[in-house]
Each structure stands twice: as C-alpha cells, then as structure tokens.
TrEMBL record:
Source organism: Babjeviella inositovora NRRL Y-12698
Source organism, top-level taxon: Eukaryota
Alphabetical list of InterPro entries matching this protein: AB_hydrolase_fold, FrsA_esterase
Organism ancestry: Eukaryota, Fungi, Dikarya, Ascomycota, Saccharomycotina
Name under which the protein is recorded: AB hydrolase-1 domain-containing protein
Amino acid sequence: MSNFYFQIDPLAHSEHTAIIGGVKTYFYGLSKLADVAPSLDVLLFFLMHGRGESHIASQSVAFRLMTKWYSAGQTTPLVCITIDNPNHGARLVDDHANNAWNKGNQNHALDMVSIIDTTANEYAMLVDYAPAYISTLLSLEGVASDAFCFRNVVSGISLGGHATVRFAQRNTAKVEAIVPIIGCTDLSSLLLNRLRKTYKTEFAHLTNFGLWNVLYEELELSAEDQVKYPKRFHDFLAEKDRQVMEEFGNTQTKKLFLFGADDVLVSEKYSKLWLENHPEGLQSFSLSGVGHTVTEEMVSHIQVFLSLLG
C-alpha cells in the first residue's frame, strides 16, 4: 500500500537496530538522547505498519512525525520504534497470505486476524524490552541512560491500527496512550461486511451492537462463505471483539483515533459504537476527503496529541 509513504530525507533522523526476541527492531531518532539531560522524559512511539507493507512505511510516517515534532519546538525527545510485522518485509513467508478475498485468498480472515494478534503480542514484548536495549545502544556511544523516564505510546496503521486496539485491550497498564490510524475496534463487523458487500442486516445490527454479538446461525452465510468464515473462527473472534468492547482496561489511557471519512476499506462506522462507549481520554477525527491512507493532517494531529500528554 504505497499510499502510506511520505517523501523523506533518510538522513534527517538517526537509525539504530537491535534484535529483540529474534526480531530486527528499528529505532529512529535515538541519537537525540545524546544531547539532552539524562533525567528527561523520553517518548517512545511504537508504530505498527499496515497489511502488505514493511517497516519502511512506518519509517516514513515516523520521520514526518519527528520532523514536525522538533519543528514545533518540542524539547522532549521522541524515539520511534518499529519492526516488520509477521509475514511482511524481511519476514515474508507467503505473500498470498497477505491478500484479501478479492485476490483469491480463501483464508483472508484467519490470516489477517492471526497476524493482528501476533503483531500485538510482539509489540507487548517490545514495550517491555525496548528501554533496556536503548540503554545498551546508547552505552555503545558513551551515553548514560539510566535516569531517563521512558513513556510509551503505541500506534499503528490499518492492520497495525487493528493490532493497536488489540494490544491496548490486554496491555493498557504498559502505555500512556494509543493512536490507531485508519484502524478498527470491531473486526467481526469489518470482516463480515467485507465478505458480503451487501450484508442484508448490516445497519440494523450496527445500530445497537456489532456483529460480534450475532450468533453464527443468524448470519445466514452461504455454504461458500462458511468455508471462508467458519463458525469456530466467528465464535473465537466474536469473543475477542466482546472483550475489546466490554473489558478494555485502564480508562486513564489516552486515545487518539484517526479515520478517513471516505475510507471504504476500513469504515469509521465499525468503530462508532466503541468510541461512544469509551469517551474517557478520547480524541477522534474523521478527515473529510480522505480514504484509506495516512495524510499530513493526520501526522499533525498526532504531533499535537503527543505534545498535550503532559
């Protein structure tokens, strides 16, 4: 999805790498810590990329964000951290498994959700281990880092936005804020409506609750669609979506949701009920004329949101 890329100067911000949990991890902007007082707060911005992309997409967004951040006069160091999601980038095993139903991947729902869950779990591990690896990387450059106070923000684009929500449902105590970008809180509704473009009870169900609250038999799927969306999977995903709705965890976690008003791939409407039921610490923007992409305005919203974390 090349529309996620920004034109960036690859030398504008530093890049360091470390192997964490067997995964190559990219740290952008770490060199800034050599120039600040060692007792300062440091924002760690973990950024998950979208389906079919790689850490390069995250890098382009991270670089735009860091450039805006420092151009606005911010003095708190901002370090962006990313990896290649499972089955993406240098970790690619089967490109077809990243395709949707409309490109012939019968297992689209299972493939996508399993990668979402694995990505969320890997970022939970990164949040735990990144500070120690940062200390190691900085010590190689003669920079003491024990007094830094690391503050965690987790974000993601598209599939990464879905994974950000899943991450936060289980790990809110680990982060100060989350920023899902063109993501979704209700994967059952997203996938079932993607499976059946003219789902006959779509709006009736979404008025009061998501399709996670609908019994499999009530979906009235064709025999062909039952192969693509089996009952065992629906029951599993519906329970996960219920947990996201009803057991989200720490209400103090600040949340910034960014949507494209013209996004037909991941419509804002599938997250509407969740947003209405979780107003604590929430900001949400639906950008007019924007489809399924990341824009300069979105990056500006993130920059302002981070600056107000206090």
